[in-house]
Amino acid sequence: MMEEEELEFVEELEAVLQLTPEVQLAIEQVFPSQDPLDQADFNAVEYINTLFPTEQSLANIDDVVNKIRLKIRKLDDNIRTVVRGQTNVGQDGRQALEEAQKAIQQLFGKIKDIKDKAEKSEQMVKEITRDIKQLDHAKRHLTTSITTLNHLHMLAGGVDSLEAMTRRRQYGEVANLLQGVMNVLEHFHKYMGIPQIRQLSERVKAAQTELGQQILADFEEAFPSQGTKPKKPKALDNPFHGIVSKCFEPHLYVYIESQDKNLSELIDRFVTDFKAQGPPKPNTEEGGAVLPSCADLFVYYKKCMVQCSQLSTGEPMIALTTIFQKYLREYAWKILSGNLPKTSSSSGGLTISSLLKEKEGSEVAKFTLEELCLICSILSTAEYCLATTQQLEEKLKEKVDVSLTERINLTGEMDTFSTVISSSIQLLVQDLDAACDPALTAMSKMQWQNVEHVGDQSPYVTSVILHIKQNVPIIRDNLASTRKYFTQFCIKFANSFIPKFITHLFKCKPISMVGAEQLLLDTHSLKMVLLDLPSIGSQVVRKAPASYTKIVVKGMTRAEMILKVVMAPHEPLVVFVDNYIKLLTDCNTETFQKILDMKGLKRSEQSSMLELLRQRLPAPPSGAEGSSSLSLMAPTPEQESSRIRKLEKLIKKRL
Fold first, then answer.
1. Cα 402 to Cα 59: distance, rounded to the nearest angstrom
2. For residue 263, what are the CA distances in angstroms to 304, 326, 388, 410, 469?
3. CB–CB of 421/383 below 8 Å?
4. Omega within 30 of 0 (cis) for the link into 510
5. Which 8-state DSSP code applies to residue 291?
6. What is the pLDDT of residues 248-267, one digit of tens each?
7. Do residues 612 and 573 touch, judged by C-beta distance below 8 A?
8. d(Cα 601, Cα 530) in Å, to the nearest integer?
9. 3-class secondary structure, 310
10. How many other CB atoms are there within 10 angstroms of residue 383's CB atom?
């Protein structure tokens, strides 16, 4: 029972003596010890095994027990001494705390006394300095008042003097006085609410306005303006008219020669820059780009015109106009015409007919995309120059004397730019027209008498449509800003392509009935493409201009009527001849001869038919010598064969 009680006591003691790791660490730092009994992980069994490792060591057990008891007795004495010493600590602590509280109270009382004394001192200082601050404010206000009164006196006197000098036209004295009055008036901006100050400010503004009007009137009286036509006749009676400019006129030749040299260098720089930068980039959004050099040229012209007109409005302006004309022509020749795509030609003109020769079975040379864009850019630039030259002529006439306006004439230069525009359009037309030549040649080389059935459009039609779709959208997009010239391009192409198509149509001989039907289908396909040419490949469908539509309808209808005559049976002869006269408005023996050749008739058969045509053609009107054409409407003839009607139904069905 004793052993169990001891074990329970030991366990309770161990539970009480379990310290946290932080406390244990702090104890080890304060009281370092190597004694196993002081270790936190002390194990009694291990400690006993250390003391008595073997059975022989048990012989000294009494000595070991005595040592331990002695150590325990020492520890008890130390604990007792410490506990007894701590009994007086609480009393000493309370006494020290009371003493500290008393000291704090004494310190607080002293601080309060010091604060009260400081407040009394501050109040005393305020009372001492109050009078000094009042004196400082009074001094500052007095100084401001004196300064303001001085400024007011200066302003009032200056306004009176300004009005008096203005009436006496003492402009030299007024110039200095006005600046001084304005500087003084700036000090009174915050006093504008005072009626007297506001009145003085209004008098200054009125004096400024009156002075400006008076000076302008004096100048106009001495040097009348030439900007209007209400004053030029009266200016001749003014003794001051032209008195200054006449002094410069004998020497203005130096200025004119200088501008001649400068413009020559400017044109050379334009040529060099164009060669260095190359043609403008293709533009398909905002239309063909205008060359920037033309804007630079006309800006320089305007600068020269203004400078010269300020010195003289007489003969020097005429000389300057001559210089302008010279370099307008040089710009048109060197920058515009000189940079159009070069082509070899026997005549040396702006034509590509020699370059685009027909080669059966091969493609012809065509302008590249960059060359097409360059032509469109030059065309747009020429149009800009044409319009700006007309404006320049009007401005020059406004600047010179009335007696010299008739000598200002830039019509020749405007004609030069018009020529550049026409040449550019002609190049575009010839390029597309020549690209279609191989297809037309292929059409005339086909064996139309061997065609056995009517199918889709022939390959040569597809080739023509392909070239149109390649060129026309590029030209249209790059001429978007000059729509009227795109319309001219379309009209000129139609006037060139349709007669050429009819010429090649006459070369298609002999033609069988089925071959004529195929050709009629091809002609109708080309007619539809040409009618749609202005908006082909465009997302925005626009109605073609009426003038263009009229040309296409007239030309391609004639081609269709020729084929219909070819398809009609030639017997009986009278019906065939009457059918020819009704279908073709420009009927004549030459066209009739070609149609007979297309039908493959022999010469013996043709002679009787030609004689019958001559008999049935009405007599030409008086004054039309040698004319064998007849202007008649072309209704559908009643004698048209069932085969022709069947062909028309076939065309409508396919379209």
1. 153
2. 10, 10, 17, 18, 43
3. yes
4. yes
5. P
6. 677 778 888 888 899 999 99
7. yes
8. 32
9. helix
10. 22
Contact (Cβ atoms closer than 8 angstroms) between residue 240 and residue 223: yes
Distance CA 578, CA 604 (A): 20
619 and 629 Cβ atoms separated by less than 8 Å? no
Residue identified by tokens 């992980």 is: 41
Q: What does residue 138 show for φ and ψ, rounded to 5 degrees?
A: -65, -40
Which stretches does DSSP call E strand in 85-198? Answer: none
Give dist(CA 558, CA 499) in Å, integer. 10
| 436/440 Cα distance (integer angstroms) | 7
Residue with tokens 């297809």: 439
DSSP state of 542: -
- Helix residue ranges per DSSP H, 186-252: 195-222, 232-235, 245-248
User: Which amino acid makes up residue 85?
Assistant: G
Residue 427: the pLDDT is 93
Identify any residues that bridge with 630 across adjacent strands, giving them in sequence order.
Answer: 586
The answer to whether the beta carbons of residues 436 and 467 sit under 8 Å apart is yes
pLDDT in tens, 538-590: 877 788 889 999 999 999 999 998 888 888 887 787 788 887 888 887 778 88
pTM of the model: 0.57
- Number of neighbours of residue 591 by Cβ within 10 angstroms: 19
Length in residues, the chain: 655
Any idea which residue has 């003493």 for tokens? 99
Q: Residue type at 236? A: L
Residue type, 353: S
Alpha helices (runs of H) in 87-194, residue ranges in sequence order: 89-168, 171-185
Residue 172: φ, ψ to 5°:
-65, -45
Structure tokens at 575: 């019906």
Peptide bond into 280 cis (omega under 30): no
What's the start-to-end Cα distance of the chain, in Å? 127
Q: Whole-angstrom Cα distance, residue 284 to residue 476? A: 9
